[in-house]
Amino acid sequence: MRAGTRMQAAARIAFMALVAAMLFLFFTNDFGLVDIHKTSIVVAVGVDASESGYRVTAQAAVPTPASGEGSASYTQVTGSGATVADAIDDINAKTGFYPKLAFCNLVILGESCAEKQLFTVLDYFYRNDYVPLTALVGICRGSAEELLAQKPSDGGMSSSAIQRAMSEELKNSANASTINLKLLAQDAGSPSRSSYMPVIKYSGGGGGGSTAATPAGTSGSSDGGGAGNSAEFTCLTTAAFDGGRYAGELSEEQSFALNLLRNDIRLAVMNVEHDGKNYTVALKNNSCKTEVGSEGGMPVLKIKFRAIANVQAAETRPAAESSANSHLVPEEVLAAASSAIEQRMRSLAEFCVSNSCDLLGAGSMFYRRFYSDSLALDGRVIDVLKTVYDIRVGSVR
Amino acid sequence: MNDQLCTRQVCFIMSAYSAAGKLLMMPAVLSYYCAGDLWLPALALYALQTAAVWAAAYASSKTDKTFFALAEGALGKVAGKLLSWLFAAFFLLACVLPVLEQKLFVQSIFYDTIPSLVTFLPFFVFSVYVGAKGIRNAGRVADIVMPLFFAAFAALVIMSVGESDMSALQPVLVSSSPSRLFSGARFSLYNFADGAVMLMFMGRFAYKKGDAAKITLSYAASALAVLLFLALFYSIFSSLAPDRYFAVGQIAVFFPALSLVGRVDLVAVYAVELCMLFALALYIRLAVACVCGALGKEQTKGRNVRPAAAVASLAMNVLLLAAAIIFNNSYLVVQEVFGRYLWCVYLAFAFVLPAVAATAARFARGARA
Questions:
Q1: pTM: predicted TM-score of the whole model, two decimal places
Q2: pLDDT tens digits, one per residue of B279-296
Q3: What is the value of ipTM here, to two decimals?
Q4: Which of A19, A30, A100 sits opposite B126 (nearest CB)?
């Protein structure tokens, strides 16, 4: 082989190796060299508004050795500042680590935030490229800091327990009005201008369990035990916002109706009273369709709901006593179920009209289908909305 | 005539490469100007660009000459050389915004903290190498990249479609004014250099009957894919769309399974990114080819790169590197300059010149019947 050709081959191999090395550098993330002591993986953030600005509480997961007995450790730190970003920077100043929000799956707003413009409070989370838009959002009574400091019954992080109370399963069973950052902003940015989020409540509880005060705030660790004052979290009611302003709180029944309208419900359970007796009915094959029409330029919303019901438990005619066809639901109970659902939907619609808060999404639908009529109404469709209900619940056969 | 590509490779380049670069910033830019009507200016641009691609393919059917040889025959040697230099400058210009976009994309999507510019610099090493390798090599790469790209694209679409709400695209043609639609088209025009790319393939593949239709249909298919992507993007993000840069990296994040298995969508994003890098490098290859043509030097001999091509590729990349450093924090300014002033350059090179070439080839001496 001539020397020139050998040189050329060697150069080619060297060049390819260089390209491979550079591509490796290009496609790798910091070579995986993340100093765990300088990094905190924030899993939840709580925001409280104060007179001087905001207080942000970050709940950060702390890595534990695999051989350790605890299953999860966490630290909770609070910073304050003129804006949420400023408060997060304060956390950085207090702790020495900059909170990484790439894994932040929960944003909790304290009650005080309801007095502020919602998207001014949440602005930081939409501007920051590293905050996932899939993060769940909720509002709580009292302060978010206090809520995050509660110790759940499983002894783990409160944020995990709260996320379970806002889980996809609960959303699909109409028990929680779960929403994430993306859907929240989309609803508010739609012609309806209205958005909602679950109200997080807790019962029991009384502080951060085995927490110890540190200059940065509090920290805790799981010992796997169900210590005394453990808290239970629920998200059964819903906070409504119109144009980013707090409009009111939906009751459990109104929230149930909202969930039927807005989410893909797989199995919903509701209690129906007939003849003075309680029947717990499971609704399957739910289909809730909303269609907007125009009558003389005025919006008419048709809500069509269909479901198949079966009795899960009844105070009369227990299945054990008359086993034949126990899954069949009496017509009267079906009618009572339909009536209960309609009542809940009417109640929701009344809330929307009285608060000028279009959670039904009628404004958006009207804007998309009847653009010129919508312009004539100047976007306030909800104030003149007529609602027609077509609700039918059938029995399994 | 110097056959460097086969028709299949031309089709692959015109479909995969042309689509890849349009999945980064174009959806956000169009959403900003046109909201739910974002697909309308894209459709208009694609219709014109498809016509330009067809015109260049048609010109190939009429003559075996390259575009520059055709120009030389019609206008003289000096005009031919001048056109070569102008096209080299055009392709270099066409790289500037995509390079800046790639830098931001890599920094934003593949890192969870803000990395420095240094992390992107290896691209230029890759680019010097690929840029010098010539058009024949681009065809071979396209054979591998095209199936990879469309598999990844399909995966991303499947992962995204569940989150979409197509009603967000309504009402059509009422929410954005004609001037906004025009601005959207103008500011997206820097993504449309495909007519000029096709011109460069003139005389570089053996034209057979029906090839113009195949190439045009390949391009139209990729146009359809991009339009679908635009509609999907807006139906997922609606009012948030203008702020969602790097659409291809964000569109699938709402796939429910990702909360259990992690960001597996990034595998598909990596595959698309690979295609984007080669699509970007294609412009450099073409610029190098133009420079070598203007100097009358060979670009490659067999599989070996000749010195002229290596030096040209190096020089091009040094210029792009300088642009990346100078405009490191000024992406929006550069985008504004392209959208306000330089769109005319794209109009001339990628839309008008293919039509001129088709006319010239039709009436050139020795044109095929």
A1: 0.87
A2: 999 999 999 999 999 998
A3: 0.83
A4: A19
